[in-house]
Amino acid sequence: MKNVTDSFVSLGYWPFAGSFGFNTDILATNLINLTVVLGVLLFFGKGVLSDLLDNRKQRILNTIRNSEELRGGAIEQLEKARARLRKVEMEANEFRVNGYSEIEQEKWNLINSTYKTLEQLENYKNETIHFEQQSAINEVQQQVFQQALEGALGTLNSCLNNELHLRTISANIGMFGTMKEIID
């Protein structure tokens, strides 16, 4: 500590103008140099440092403001997306419900259509059976009539002689003549 005080005391003993010398006391010279440098820095660098800090502060504030705006926009977009999702989910549920009811309706329509088709086929079958029965009955009737006619002709031919045959023909012609006169 004595060296520090000695350096300040020795200030009064500096030689006057005309001589120039080196101060070899490191503590004294560093302290003076630091004081001078700090004084100059504070005097001249105060404005520059203040401007740098203000610029940095403004950039940080602008970044925070932009981040808040982006965050607000993102939240707004998220809410819009959620609203669209809810809307799409509701529409999907409506389509699902409507689809199930339409499928059910189509199923019943198909069942009813199939039932009507089966009913028509049953009617066609019954009509075909009835037609075939009538055809069979008519064919049997014709065969019976044919056999009866052949039997009657056979009986007539065996029982009738020519004279009886001619009288029967004459009687029938007479009946036809009488019927003709009644009609005219």
Automatic annotation (TrEMBL):
Quaternary structure, from the entry: F-type ATPases have 2 components, F(1) - the catalytic core - and F(0) - the membrane proton channel. F(1) has five subunits: alpha(3), beta(3), gamma(1), delta(1), epsilon(1). F(0) has four main subunits: a(1), b(1), b'(1) and c(10-14). The alpha and beta chains form an alternating ring which encloses part of the gamma chain. F(1) is attached to F(0) by a central stalk formed by the gamma and epsilon chains, while a peripheral stalk is formed by the delta, b and b' chains.
Task: Extract the GO molecular function terms from the UniProt entry.
Answer: proton-transporting ATP synthase activity, rotational mechanism
Q: Which UniProt keywords apply?
A: ATP synthesis, CF(0), Chloroplast, Coiled coil, Hydrogen ion transport, Ion transport, Membrane, Plastid, Thylakoid, Transmembrane, Transmembrane helix, Transport
Identification of the protein by name: ATP synthase subunit b, chloroplastic
The subcellular location is: Membrane; Plastid, Chloroplast thylakoid membrane
For this chain, the family text in UniProt reads: Belongs to the ATPase B chain family.
Matching InterPro entries: ATP_synth_b/b'su_bac/chlpt
Instruction: Return the CDD domains for the record.
Output: ATP-synt_Fo_b (cd06503)
Additional note from the record: In plastids the F-type ATPase is also known as CF(1)CF(0).
Q: How does it sit in the membrane?
A: Single-pass membrane protein
Q: Organism's domain of life?
A: Eukaryota
